[in-house]
Amino acid sequence: MSYYKIKDLENYFKMYKKSVREPRKFWDRIADENFTWYQKWDKVFDFDMEKAEFKWFLNAKVNITKNCIDRHLNKRGYKTAIIFEPNNPNEEAQHITYEELYKNVAKWSNVLEEQGVKKGDRVCIYLPMIPELAYATLACARIGAIHSVVFAGFSASALSARINDCEAKMVITSDGGYRGNKTIDLKSIVDESLEKCNTIETVLTVNRTNSSVTMKEGRDLWVQPLLDKAQDNHVAAIMDAEDPLFILYTSGSTGKPKGMLHTTAGYMVYTAYTFKNVFNYEENDVYWCTADIGWITGHSYILYGPLLNGATTVIFEGVPSYPDFSRFWEVIEKHKVNQFYTAPTAIRALAKESLDYVQKFPLSSLKVIGSVGEPINEEAWHWYNDHVGGKRCPLVDTWWQTETGGIMISPIPFVTPTKPTYASLPLPGIQPVLMDELRNEIEGNQVTGALCVKFPWPSMARTIWGDHQRYIDTYFKAFPGKYFTGDGALRDEVGYYRITGRVDDVIIVSGHNLGTAPIEDAINEHPAVAESAIVGFPHDIKGNALYGYVILKETGESRNQDNLRKEINQLISDQIGPIAKLDKIQFVSGLPKTRSGKIMRRILRKIAEGDFSNFGDISTLLNPEIVEEIKDGKL
Ligand code: WT7
């Protein structure tokens, strides 16, 4: 265990150096000491950066669910593996032990096999955040089928695009799902999507909402009667280290979603190692990540990472605003959550509401709080740190991507001193570099550049499903010999990284490189501002000028808008410089966001440019109606 857990800052630096100088020895020992293998590897890794070919733990044989479940049964059979917190706070929470998890996953595995699912087949999972989502996902991994979980907020057309891309054989869904005060009819969305698919043979349906559904003869089955008949034990399939584990789609900057393929052993080793260290998980802690399992965050840090460590992980079906804005804090109190992991967008939304919602609860069980998904602005960082973490819990700002499989840059609690808005230092095994436009590595500190990674790590995506060339082009072309993240970053005087946002969000104004994040930080400091987004638009003299979209807090809405504009620009001027002042400031009631909470800057950019001709696909937006409002209010 000594090698697995980073003890203090000195130990971190020692481990980090070791992982760079002797990566084979480093990962060999971690993999060897902490997992159950049918057969060990011949070689720790092999790679070719140019061809973008990566292999880890060559020829090892393993099953990830044996490591997530079976091996805990002796010591932790009666320990809670999953706490299910339903959408409705009056519905009782479920505590599912490792023993029960084993039996459920075994039953599901037997059902999938009976239905003809084989090693290598793709199974699309379109379920709400209920325990069956965990069972179905783990059952796929257990029998060697490749799961592709699609977030159950995606539309029918997004779902069919994904099913068709990976040629899935089965869809697992439910009649419906609860989200706040809404019930979403998932089965009918699946029915609609399948009108455009022809690879699906079976639709397994979970009963969650007792909604009326149509069941197509010969294709659709209720899963419960099948589970009732199934055996509650199952022999896990023996998988090769590099056998595919799952495909997870991530939206590209254009067009077709990219099916990122993750494989078995490297993903297992890395998610387990990072979960333990980044959340400082200790036996008997209760860990809660509020993401959906339909995103990589949920794959790696609701399911695999926690279960690999024998942890207790919370699956929350609901939303932060239902029944009111205290739901998160109430759930933390109810289950005595020790580690809490959420997204800046949620923090900002909650910070906009009365402090009473959070101050009602002592939250004294919390030990570590985390952030993921986008740069966390300074105001949100402090609000989270002060009011949720009580200035006592380290706030881990974790930078990573669907493509990286696991957390790459993050403070380690009680080890790495935190600094607001900084993801801080790379985890052992991760070698970030900053690159300039001439494709040279920028050495030294206090520099900014395009964030790349110059050496492989175990959990990196291996390809884009069905399109290896696109994988090469997207990630390995811009900076030959390196993995390009698409993000920009700053490295400060002590080597801490601050992710400044997508590189395509950098706006050059009068020859000055301006990042959107720091300007938005400045705007958000204004007491009347809730959230903001800035984009560039063409300007005759400056090349680009800045256009700001600003959401006001309720208290700010009655203020004189011209005065507000002046005050906002004064703030920017004070914090960054007059060069960063906005030419236009439009007050809006919302920003177009993807379902994972990211602002769709592409749309804002088009509106700012006055180009209303083609916004592209806005069907995946959380709030497509906002586009019209913003367009109508354009300055
Ligand atoms: C992009 C990846 C894997 C987490 C869920 C999002 C941005 C993610 C941070 C952070 C600044 C962050 C980056 C990255 N991002 N975490 N802590 N600080 N930016 O996964 O949808 O694949 O998005 O999210 O821009 O490239 P994703």
TrEMBL record:
It holds the Pfam family AMP-binding. Residues 519-598 form the AMP-binding enzyme C-terminal domain. It comes from Flavobacterium okayamense. Residues 12-68 form the Acetyl-coenzyme A synthetase N-terminal domain. Keywords: Acetylation, ATP-binding, Ligase, Nucleotide-binding. Residues 70-462 form the AMP-dependent synthetase/ligase domain. Belongs to the ATP-dependent AMP-binding enzyme family. It is an enzyme of class 6 (ligase). This is Acetate--CoA ligase. Its EC number is 6.2.1.1. CDD domains: ACS. It comes from the Bacteria. Transmembrane segments: none annotated. The gene is acsA.
